[in-house]
Design a protein that fits this description.
9 helices, two-stranded antiparallel sheet
């Protein structure tokens, strides 16, 4: 065997990935000189319970991400207008749809709210709407009828067809589209209440299962209707800790409201509250994460990988 052959044999096989991996520092350097459009008070209002979002995190992670998204939206709109011109038709460009997925308590709602604010500050995307898939859960009465109340949040607890119809209407160019409204206080759909979307530039759709594959091979998946998708990722043990911390904060806050579905938890002592939270995590949310949510990570256009302190430490961006 020649020296060249020996060297080749000793080298590990080349590894390939669908994603570009950028650590926090490299990602932050992509947006030098971008003006911070939010104040510290605004960031505090946007972050969820237990999240530790601050101005530095916004500047280094989410401001560059919002700029990338605005570029994608502008390019998609330009392509749509060019296609309409080619077909000798009026411009029928539809809203740019962004899906945001991830576990319960991972912070995806904060990411969605923050991106809505940041994207609306870019001239290409001034009108941004946010819709959560909670509105497409079956009402509690229907979940009880089906015997799956204890699986709320699992794929089968959602009216997938209604969600598909909603997104299809958006991407078909409907002037007005309506979604059901979900109350976290009541832990249920509010009858006759709706979220109205009037053909904005961008619609952000946030939820556990938005990147789920279709239940049948010949069916359409929700994710096929997104122009860009984001998965918010973290180690399950870290998410479990965040879940417990959020539960404890809610026990002293929202759960203390007599109108809250979970008002009975307000009277628990701390030890019982932690035990209750871990019970819900281990019996419902962790199995849903492992079985249904985490396997969809590879379907995302971009992955935000969080460390134990909630800070994003790496960004994975799918190659074009």
């Amino acid at each position: 065997m020649s020296a060249d052959e020996a060297s080749t044999a000793a080298d590990p096989a080349p590894t390939h990935s669908l994603y570009r991996a950028l650590d926090r520092g490299d990602w932050a350097r992509l947006a030098p000189g971008m003006e911070q459009p939010l104040t510290d008070a605004e960031v505090v209002q946007l972050r969820g319970i237990g999240d530790r979002m601050d101005l530095r995190e916004v500047q280094e992670v989410y401001l560059p991400l919002s700029r990338l998204l605005s570029l994608y939206a502008r390019s998609t709109k330009t392509l749509g207008a060019s296609t309409s011109s080619f077909l000798h038709e009026p411009d029928t460009t539809t809203p740019f749809l962004i899906g945001i997925a991830g576990s319960v308590a991972v912070g995806k709602s904060t990411v969605a709210r923050l991106l809505r604010e940041l994207l609306s500050r870019w001239s290409d995307t001034p009108r941004v709407e946010l819709v959560t898939t909670d509105g497409f859960l079956y009402p509690n009465a229907e979940l009880e009828r089906r015997g799956i109340m204890d699986r709320k949040g699992f794929p089968e607890s959602y009216d997938r067809r209604a969600l598909l119809d909603f997104l299809t209407d958006l991407k078909s160019g409907a002037e007005v589209v309506r979604a059901p409204f979900y109350s976290h206080l009541r832990y249920d759909i509010v009858p006759d209440a709706v979220v109205t979307v009037r053909r904005p530039d961008v619609v952000i759709v946030e939820g556990l299962n938005v990147l789920q594959p279709p239940p049948a091979a010949n069916d359409v998946s929700v994710s096929e209707l997104f122009d860009f998708s984001i998965y918010v990722d973290a180690a399950p043990d870290d998410i479990a800790q965040w879940y417990v911390e959020r539960f404890m904060a809610l026990k002293k806050g929202a759960f203390a409201n007599p109108s809250s579905y979970f008002s009975s938890f307000a009277a628990l002592d701390d030890e019982a509250a932690v035990s209750t939270a871990l019970g819900y995590w281990n019996s419902i949310n962790l199995p849903n994460l492992i079985e249904n949510v985490l396997p969809t990570k590879h379907r995302a256009t971009l992955v935000l990988e969080k460390a134990a302190d909630h800070a994003v430490e790496q960004v994975l961006l799918r190659k074009l």
